[in-house]
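Please annotate the following for my students:
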Amino acid sequence: MKFETFQAGVWESRYQYKSFEPVPVNHEWLWEDPIINALLESANRALGELNAFSLIVPDIDLFIEMHVVKEAQTSSRIEGTQTGIDEALMPEEHILPEKRDDWREVRNYIDAVNTAIAELKTLPLSNRLLKQTHEVLLSGVRGEHKQPGEFRISQNWIGGSSLMDAVFIPPHPDNVPELMSDLEKFWHNDSITVPHLVRLAISHYQFETIHPFLDGNGRIGRLLVPLYLVSHGLLAKPSLYLSDFFERNRASYYDALMRVRMSNDLIHWVRFFLQGITETATKGRETFHKILLLRTEAEQSLLHLGKRAPNARLALNLLYKQPIVSATDFEQKLAVSTPTAHALIRELEKLNLLREVTGQQRGRLYTFDRYLNLFLS
């Protein structure tokens, strides 16, 4: 099917509303638009550079953890969750009671990402994997009564207060299993020659249009991007997440999706998506570069600590995964005594590697600002 002649689907009359029934996507795709070819080349190059960087960074998994936290916080913010990245890193007891529901949703997203990436080692990208991930996402939070881990069996909608004034009404629930089966086949169809990034652009559009779950479709649909890239070997590590790009261009993001449904304009959507891949991969590579510079500088600052240097290096490795810590975190995770933990904190404060942020005498928290700030820009 050519992008230029693509027909996105049909509106089916239901009782008092019309649902949009998208066409299947598991087939060959062609286009004449030269801009897509140029954007595809740029996106592949940027993604390759990000992947190469992630392969040469020592102990890369230390830093991937913060990428996941950043993604969880940003993707949840798109859905209206008000939790800062610093709050997402804090223990629940340090979160104001009125903000704990939001905090739990972000922490669930972190668990969902980590679980899904781990599952990819034994389970291919599939509807089964998405359902498992969805169950983790909604466990014990506000969406826990909306069929966690199951495709919907009732009609949902996007925007508005009901089906009567909805901005968009996805396909009827009876059609969801067949559409999602078609989408899964598309991910793994080796008989068609569709470039992976174009296939991924179409897949994200199709997933969000099907809206297969009662809740959490935006977050699962955005998580589909790194899952696809890792499962197909385009990334060795889950180091690229588009939520930041989508959030900074939120109006354009929703507009591009709706233009496909309303005007069959798939070209505009694919261009937008590929631009997002390029910008995000480039930004990710720059972040890794800054991390390496900071790491080198931090390691050098520890050299004069003498016998405390080995423990200080272990502390730094913990801080790359968890840049907001307590003395108890050092005690438990570094297996050191209470006096040793406090001595380490004092040394790291002198080196400008830790800063106390609570102003309390008990239950103090310390933050590795210079590292955390790399994920706030």
Strands lie at 9-13, 18-22, 324-325, 355-356, 366-367. The two ends are 40 Å apart (CA to CA).
